[in-house]
Amino acid sequence: MLISLELFVMLVLANGAPVVAARVLGRRWSAAIDGGRRWRDGRPLLGSSKTWRGLVSGTLACGLFALTTGMGLVFGLLFGLLGLIGDMISSFIKRRAGLASSGRAIGLDQIPEALLPMILAWYWLDLNGLVVAGVVVLFTLSNILLSPLLYRLGIRHQPH
């Protein structure tokens, strides 16, 4: 049960640390990962909201948390990186579908960024598949339900 909570916290850190880093650092180190490149459909590859600052801050936050909880720095860094890669995959698909970076895509906005790192955790930590599924569902539901509140509190820029 504790491991489920720790993994959930890591998913929140991977996705929340970039938001905090953007607030603290402003426009510093905000270069887009895609470098402004466009796909053959003329739309941005990922979009300007996927930054190197976000990738580094989310990955480091997970790494440091995992180190302090005994899961190990390498596991935490990989977990955070996979979460953010999942987020980038979502952004890539949303751009291909013509959705703006702030456009809502329930499930697509949550599942890849939770599932990819949880697959790593499944193998690395020898977890039960139900634990993996449970954490993915918990993250997805909490993201859908809490994002509007975080928006009203001024923490998020979009209500989803």
TrEMBL record:
Organism superkingdom: Bacteria
Alphabetized UniProt keyword annotations: Membrane, Transmembrane, Transmembrane helix
TM helices/strands, residue ranges: 55-85, 131-151
Keyword Transmembrane helix: yes
Cited InterPro entries: CarS (IPR032690)
Name listed for the protein in its UniProt record: CDP-archaeol synthase
Organism this protein belongs to: Marinobacter vulgaris
Lineage of origin: Bacteria, Pseudomonadati, Pseudomonadota, Gammaproteobacteria, Pseudomonadales
